[in-house]
Amino acid sequence: MYRYDEFDHAFVRDRVTQFRDQVKRRIAGDLTEEQFKPLRLMNGVYLQLHAYMLRVAIPYGTLSARQMRKLAHIARTYDKDYGHFTTRQNIQFNWPRLEDLPAILDELADVEMHAIQTSGNCIRNVTTDHFAGAAADEAGDPRPWAEIIRQWSSLHPEFSYLPRKFKVAVTGAARDRAAIRFHDIGLELRHAPKDFGEGAKGETGLGFRIFVGGGQGRTPMVAKEIRDFVPERDLLAYLEAIMRVYNRFGRRDNKYKARIKILVHERGIDEIREAVEAEFEALRGGVLDIPLEAREQISAYFAAPDFEVLPAKSETLEAAWTSNPVFGQWMARNTHPHKTPGYVSVTISLKPTGGVPGDARSAQMDAVADLADRYSFSEIRVSHEQNLILPHVRKDDLPALHKALVDAGLEAANAGLVTDIIACPGLDYCALANARSIPIAQRISERLADHDRQAEIGDLSLKISGCINACGHHHVGHIGILGVDRKGEEFYQITLGGAPGGDAAIGEIVGRGFSTDQVVDAVETIVDTYLGVRQDADETFLTAYRRVGKAPFQEALYGA
Amino acid sequence: MPKPPKTQVMTANRLGDGRVVYLGNEDWTTDLADARLLPDADSQALAEEVAKAAVADRAIVEPYLIDVDEEAERIEPVRLRERIRASGGPTTGSSVAA
């Protein structure tokens, strides 16, 4: 993991000191709310429905066990004993007191964490594949690049007051698990295309396929490819070129048209590309050049742990799989292939039946930290699907790990199944929301809880947002649910066929919305309709939907 | 003929901890049942003045008036958002410590 250097430590401590003084001045009346609000937002402090909310950055979703214990301590000491892991791989505390916030930020600084740039019109926390550095299918580890981008974009004076917030995601695998096509900039670390000139590939032959102008919200857009390959050393020059074009031409007259996706849409990708390439030519090879030595220096922080040499097959695992069907179910859903023989990555689902998606109690956070120490080289990841990951677990240890997860109430065997629901906090917490998300997620999870039925349904993503800002990623759910306010009543609009990955698609509205009472039945009808139309058990919901379209679902939901 | 004003209540968040509060007869209260009912334009204008002073005095932030149902047995906000705020926490939440 990346470790703060002297500069990082001093910088974060200075910010805490600065914020402590700002809070003191606010409480003393030397700052008005109008003056204080932008300052607190720059430190991740929002005012929500019931209380202040602190959003803490988890850079590219990577946590050490020590950091997780600190989050648990903060939840226990300053909050209501739980935290909420978000779709941006961050954590939110829902009940901090204003006067406690400097102390919380100090505690975070103790473990090299902060809340800077988790709000405002700046470059936000860079997100990545939650299996980064472990996945069997990656061309390279995206985390060093996420860290390089973090360092470049932290308090970058040119990009601190952008037209709107700006989100970057990086994947190192061809199979996109980071939804890069739904970010302002999406990066895919890849080998140079075969027809790319030898001299232009760079020292490693690795570089980036770059997408720009994706996003969700009220105007969902799939990002366009702006360049198929930028060599590693030129990445920052290319990113800065994009940012400059956005800063110069992005709209500031209307916040709903200020994201780069609108600029790309209005001007067209060709015009944007031309402008970016011109900036890039001026920038490349200059101060933003990243020589191999600098890249290696950052990459060293992310060196693979000391893996044992193990056989690919584990006898312990095979025996447990055969003798314990509950373990087998969990094993089948919650593990992911690892690049090192004898290891897997494990998804710890934060979606128990009837639970609040993404919430974890402090005791559970502590339990995960202990398990990370014992079984995963003290490493933990937060996924944008609001689950936790132990990235490097020996197959031999899986039965013991599963038993420990059962003891901690973290054994839900539903990764990627219909109850692995993404849900934003919705109207239960959020000042922007129009409708509740969490109770809908809980009711759907209870209705479809039967594991055999879920296994029969197979891979199916269900995502719920409580307003058009789409924090619950409903646009890219195979089934998406958007809560709206219709004359004071909560109503839920359903979309079908969305997908966040390489097969990116924005879901299509299936028809008129459903009331709170109707929406769970409607989801069940959609699921049953899929089971009826699929050609065989191998045809996933998304494949079946793309083959048959929405007509059979409309017929089932609304009649002929 | 203009519609008669709806009965309202003045709400805000407390500066120190962000908790939801209402203007009561004596002071700001966390209990909606103790809120001062504001049935007409004059009382609502007065409440806005009181709220403005409370903001200046650092007691509260972001005050605004909400419609309430005066027919109900107890004071009931008209909008769901305000009913959720008045309930003191999420409507569902196995994660909230008891």
Strand order of the largest sheet of chain B: 3-2-1-4-5
Oligomer: heterodimer
- What is the distance, rounded to the nearest whole angstrom, between the alpha carbons of the first and last residues of chain A? 57 Å
- Rg of chain B: 14 Å
Shape of chain B: globular
Q: Helical element count of chain A?
A: 18
Mean pLDDT value of chain B = 90
Radius of gyration of chain A: 23 Å
The CATH architecture of the largest domain in chain A can be named as 2-Layer Sandwich
- Kindly state the number of beta strands of chain B: 5
Q: Return the CATH class of the largest domain in chain A.
A: Alpha Beta
Give the class of chain B from helix and strand content and strand pairing.
alpha+beta
Number of distinct helices of chain B: 2
Unreliable stretches of chain B (pLDDT < 50, length at least 5) are 94-98
| Most extensive protein-chain contact, per-chain counts | A-B, 34 and 29 residues
Number of domains of chain A: 4
Helix content of chain A: 25-40%
- Shape designation of chain A: globular
What's the structural domain tally of chain B? 1
CATH homologous superfamily assignment of the largest domain in chain A: Sulfite Reductase Hemoprotein, domain 1
